[in-house]
Amino acid sequence: MSSTSPIILILGAGANIGQHVARAFATKGYRVALASRSLKEADNTEDQVNIPSDLSDPHSVIGVFSKVKELLGPPSVVVYNGESLLQRSKTPPERSLLIIREAAAATANDPKDPLSLPLTDFTRDLNINTTSAFVAAQQAVLGFKGLPDSASKIFIYTGNMLNTTTMASLLDLGVGKSATAHIIQSAAAAYADRGFKFYYADERKVDGSAVYSNIDGEAHGKHYAQLAEGKEQGPWQQTFVKGIGYKHFPTA
C-alpha cells in the first residue's frame, strides 16, 4: 500500500467493533493502526500497526499517537472505541453484578445505592470512557492541523444511549458517556469551520431503543466509513440503525 494512503487509528480495537471498523477502512485503502491491551507489536505488517496500550492511563494515549506518527504518519481518522472490560463491583459482594460492554468500561453498582461504587473503580472507568478519549481528541486535532484539505479529519467516539437516559446499575458508564458526549458536541461546533468533524456514535434498534449487547460491528464499520467520506460536519450525535444508517430519535 502506498505511503501516501490515509491512516486510521482505532483506540480500543476489540474483536467486534474495532476489527470490523478496521476492515471497512482497509478495504477503502486506509493503513490501519490499532491500539489495545492485547495487541503485540510483533504482529505488525506493512499496512497494519499494533500498539499495546492501556486506556485506563490517559498519559499513554500521547505515546500511542507518537508511535503512529513515527511508523505511519498522522491519522486523518481517529476512532475511540474504549475497551471491553469485565468488572465486578466489590461493594457489597452479595449484590455484585458481572457486566460486559463493547466500547466501554463499566463496573456494576448496587442500583439501590449507586454512590457505594468504590472510587478506584469509578476513576479507572472514567479514565477509559472519558479522560483518555479527551486526550485522544486533543491529539487528533494536533494532527489534523497538519493534514491537507482533502483529508477526512474526523474523530468518532463509540457511545451508547446513556448520555440521554440512566440505568440504575451503571452509574459510572453513564457518567463517562454523558461527559464525553458533551466533549464531542462542543468540539463539533468549535472546529466545524476548520473542517474537523466530531461524532458520538450510538447504534439503536429501529424503534430507537438500545441494542444493549447485540452490537453489530459490521454496521459500525459501514457507518463510520460513510461518516469519514462526508465533507462537512453532520449531526454530532449519530444515532444509527443497522441497514438504515443515521436516524434521528427525539430525546425526552
What is the compact description of this entry?
With 252 residues, the chain is an alpha/beta fold. It has five helices and ten strands, in the order E-H-E-E-H-E-E-E-H-E-H-E-H-E-E. Helix 2 (59-71) packs parallel to helix 3 and helix 3 packs parallel to helix 4.
Describe the model.
The protein has about 250 residues and is an alpha/beta fold. The protein contains 5 helices and 10 strands, in the order βαββαβββαβαβαββ. It has an 8-stranded mixed β-sheet, with helices on both faces. β9 (about 235-240) and β10 (about 245) form a beta hairpin. α2 packs parallel to α3 (about 120-145). The longest helix has 26 residues, at about 120-145.
How many H/I helical runs? 5
Beta-strand content bin: 15-25%
Described by the principal axes of the CA atoms, the overall outline is globular
| Integer average pLDDT | 90
The overall strand count is: 10
**Helix content range:** 25-40%
- Measure the end-to-end span: 48 Å
* Structural class by secondary-structure content: alpha/beta
- Taking pLDDT < 50 over at least 5 consecutive residues as the criterion, the unreliable ranges are 91-102
| Topology as a string of helices (H) and strands (E) | EHEEHEEEHEHEHEE
How many whole angstroms does the radius of gyration measure?
17 Å
| Biggest sheet record | 8 strands, mixed
Question: Would you spell out the secondary-structure blueprint of this structure?
Answer:
Layout (H helix, E strand, L loop, with lengths): L6 E5 L5 H10 L4 E6 L11 E5 L6 H13 L5 E4 L5 E3 L9 E3 L18 H26 L9 E5 L12 H20 L6 E8 L12 H13 L7 E5 L3 E2 L6
Parallel strand pairs: 1-2, 1-4, 2-3, 4-7, 7-8, 8-9
Antiparallel strand pairs: 5-6, 9-10
Helix pairs in contact: 1-5, 2-3, 3-4
